[in-house]
Structure formats: structure tokens, C-alpha cells
Amino acid sequence: MSFLSKIKSALQKTSREISSSIAGKKIDENFVQQMEDALILADVGVETATELTEKISARRFTPETQAEEIKQLLIKEITAMLAPYESNFFAGKIDHNPYVILVIGVNGNGKTTTVAKIANIFKNLGHRPLLVAADTFRAAAVEQLAYWAHKIQADIFTGKEKADPAGLAYNSLDKARQNNNDLVLIDTAGRMQNRDDLLAELEKIKRSVKKNDATAPHSIILILDGLTGQSVHNQVDIFLEKIGVDGIIITKLDGTAKGGALIALTRKYKIPILAVGVGENIDDLKPFNAGEYASAILDA
Ligand SMILES: Nc1nc2c(ncn2[C@@H]2O[C@H](COP(=O)(O)OP(=O)(O)O)[C@@H](O)[C@H]2O)c(=O)[nH]1
Ligand SMILES: [Mg+2]
Fold it and tell me: What is the 3-state secondary structure (H, E, C) of 10-75?
């Protein structure tokens, strides 16, 4: 499946909702209300939905105005809103050696899978990633990363079961230098006895990486699950405050009708969207492009 059609099909559930509020409708106040509702249902956020609707209304269209015209207008507005949060992550331009990426997020959000997907992209660009299994509490987590490492023929660094993740993270930088890995991807745990424990552990990992290289971690990527809904904002709040977040990746856009959540997130936090996850396979991580995304959620 081509790159664009993959994004489009991933966002089909979202676009179906929005498009059906527009297509073939007589353009009147009722129409505008329905469009606003559809945008809110797609989780673009009430504020943004209202703003978009007002922009459309301000055009003072006639009943003859074609739905297609409105669609194009929405695409233009959404693209403009999101364009500042595109990133060139996929260009693979890393400016440290080794470049250290810390991957964080709640359990089940897609961290381990996304680490593998990122590694694969960078590997195909000629880099030499090292996957670090810092979720040492669950043997299954290490096995999952090892499975992917084997599959994409990338190097992996693991510790003994229940090894200290911070110590492992520290050592992984030495390992990368010995091994000539120019990219270190640290996969972390998402669940602990409680939230404070998890955050304390992540802080410790960050500190120990910094002890090894004062400039590291060079990027902290927060993985969010596109199926989460509004509580995703709580997750961002917590990780942003306690650990810091340089970029966001939203996974599982293929399964959600709430693909608009990305708009609300960027407007609130102004953090770049590095990529979007559109499936479980290794090549199902796509760069985030504002125009493509806007077209996809409007099925254009
Ligand atoms: N459909 C879909 N599933 C995904 C995506 N990303 C991850 N997953 C699945 O979500 C589940 C949890 O992923 P995992 O990487 O183990 O999450 P972690 O607990 O954060 O490490 C797995 O079954 C993945 O295959 C995505 O973009 N789309
Ligand atoms: Mg995991």
C-alpha cells in the first residue's frame, strides 16, 4: 500500500464521520452545526472545532456552495494549524554520536513496537541503531524487543532480568561506542507499582544517561495511543512536567475515529509530532505531514 493511501486508510474512521457531516448537505445553519459536532466527535477539541466552524461560516456561502469547496477550506485551515508541528525526524539527520533517544509512555501505547519501527527507518538510512531493553521488569518485554531486533537485523542491548534500568541505560552508551552504533534507542517500562515509581525510574534513567554523556538524551519521545481519548492530555501533562518531551508519536491511528486528537494536542502543547503509527507492521510508522493528515481526516 502506498504511503499516502496507508495514512488515508488509517484515518478512515475519522474521515467517515467528518465527511458524512459535509457531503451532499444543504449549506445552512444546521449544516454548520453538524460539521462542528463531527469535528468535536473526532476529538479536534471544542475550541478548535468552533474556530474552524467560524472560519467556514464567515465565508457567507450560498446554498449552492459545493461541499467540496468547504472540504478544501477545512483542509487548508487544518493544514495551517498543524504545519508548525511537522518535523524532519525521518530525514535521519542526527547530530551526535551516539545519538540517544529515550522513548517513554504509558504501558501498551506502542513504545516497543515504535522503537523497532524507528530503528528500521534509521537503519535503512544507513545508521546503526542499538536497541536498549530498559523495561527489565518483564521478561516478555525484553523478548518482544529481541524479536524485533532479530527481525530487522539491528543490535540489541539487554541486562539480566530485573537489572537496574538506569545502569543498563548508562552502559548502553559505552556499548554503542564500542560497537559503532550511532543511534541508541532506549525502550522503557510503562507500568510500575504506581505512577510515582515509574516517573522516578524514568528520571533516574535520564540522569544516568546524562552522566555518561552530558548532552544526552538528545531526544525524549513520548508515545501516545490514538485510541486513548481525552485523558491523553493527562499523560502529556505528567511526562512533560516530570521528564520532558521533545517530540510526540501517536500510534494506532488505524483503529480510531478520533484522529482529530492530534490537532487538539499540538495546539495545547506545541510539541512536534515526529510520526504517526498506522499499524502493527514494521513499516507502519509514517512521517507526520500536516497537509496529508488534513486531507486524510477529510477523506480528500
Ligand atoms: N493497530 C496498531 N497497533 C499498534 C500500533 N503500534 C503498536 N501497536 C500494538 O499495540 C500493542 C502494544 O504495543 P507495545 O509496543 O508492546 O507497547 P508498549 O507497552 O508501550 O511497549 C501491540 O500489540 C502492538 O502491536 C499502531 O500504530 N497500530
Ligand atoms: Mg514495551
Answer: HCHHHHHHHHHHHCCCCCCHHHHHHHHHHHHHCCCCHHHHHHHHHHHHCCCCCCCCCHHHHHHHHH
- Whether 277 is in the pocket of ligand 1, judged by its Cβ within 6 Å, is yes
* Contact by Cβ (8 Å): 105, 224: yes
CA of 195 to the centre of ligand 2 (A): 16
- 33 within 8 A of 50, measured Cβ to Cβ: no
Report the atom number in ligand 1 closest to the C-alpha of 278: 27
Please confirm whether the linkage preceding 129 is cis (ω < 30° from 0): no
Q: Which of 18-22, 31-35, 46-50 has the lowest mean pLDDT?
A: 18-22
Q: Compute the average pLDDT of residues 277-281.
A: 95
**Whole-angstrom distance, CA of residue 265 vs CA of residue 230:** 10
Place of cell 469535528: 39
- Residues 6 or more apart in contact with residue 224 via CB below 8 angstroms: 105, 109, 232, 235, 236, 248, 249, 250, 251, 265
Task: Give the start-to-end residue ranges of the domains of the chain.
Answer: 3-85, 89-288
Rounded distance, CA 90 to CA 38, Å?
Answer: 32
What's the CATH class of domain 89-288?
alpha beta
CATH architecture of the domain 3-85 equals Up-down Bundle (1.20)
Q: pTM value?
A: 0.93
Question: Is the CB–ligand 1 distance for residue 112 below 6 Å?
Answer: yes
Of 181, 201, 188, 208, nearest in space to 133 by CA: 188
Mean pLDDT of 178-200: 91
Provide the pLDDT for residue 68.
79
Is the separation of the CB atoms in 28 and 56 below 8 Å?
no
pLDDT of residue 2 exceeding 70, the answer is: no
